[in-house]
Amino acid sequence: MEKEGMLKALNFLASKSLEVGTLVTDRHKQVSKFVRQQHPHIDHRYDIWHVSKGIKKKLGKLSKQADCDLVREWTKSITNHLYWCAANGIDGDDILKRWKSLIDHICDEHDECYHTTLSPEDRRKKWFTPGSKAYEKLYDILCSKTLLPDIKKLSSQHQTSSLEAYHSVVNHFAPKLLSFSYHGLHSRLLLAILHFNENFGRPQARTREGKERLAIAYTKAKAGECTPKPIPVPKTYIYVEKLMHKTVEYCTAGEKHEHSESPPPLASAYEHPDKDTTPSFSRYKR
Length: 286
Ligand SMILES: [Zn+2]
Description:
By secondary structure, the protein is mainly alpha-helical. It has two domains: 47-152, no CATH class; 161-257, no CATH class. It has helices spanning 2-15, 29-38, 48-63, 70-88, 92-105, 133-142, 147-152, 161-173, 182-199, 238-253, 279-282, and strands spanning 22-25, 43-46, 214-218, 226-230. The strands form two sheets. It has a two-stranded parallel sheet with strand order 1-2. A two-stranded antiparallel sheet has the order 3-4. Helix 3 (48-63) runs antiparallel to helix 4 (70-88), helix 3 (48-63) runs antiparallel to helix 6 and helix 4 (70-88) packs antiparallel against helix 5 (92-105). The radius of gyration is 26 Å and the shape is extended.
């Protein structure tokens, strides 16, 4: 599905004579392979959150092993470091160089580091001992052959979070649990787009005294930890009013708008076997 969706998106952009310079996606393997082979001129980058999520998961597993508790204490610093590398690296090689500086840093070796003198706060955590089980296993994760090439391709400017937010709006208008007709789903997608575009990037709400409003958020990803979250101004629904006006306009004008034809269902493209003669069905027979 991911590859199919991207294929359609790229074809759509090409049909509008738009050339894709940079593409930011998650680490979906089929997509990476497809871009590498079919669109070698596109600069393919990875969303930091998705890479960070993968590392965090591995570190979480490792921290549960015997003598590896220290990994838990360092997990947040390690993922923060990933964001810092992507934000400050000039290019892929520089991002990777910054990432690798972590390997010595966690052992209290700072020759390759980019920071100035460490404050007592920075020295609060225990350092790793080279050669220890925790360090060796951590090293394998941080410098794994599959991770390092992806670190080089971290996106420094654009992330996929707004797309993710859009998908959650689509999920609201067209829940995956329910099935809709072709035109039903199409209409719901259009509504989701109108709603998203009208409400995306709302400014932070303010109190009567003019102070910015914040909420305390507890997220599943940061088990037990709370973070301040800006409260945006309330949503607006101007698009609903506009749609109503248009509908009334069309109806009073007595105009008729015919639906375009729905495409045939996906399953109709496949061969339908005969239940009585197909051998794989026979074992279900009494
Ligand atoms: Zn350091």
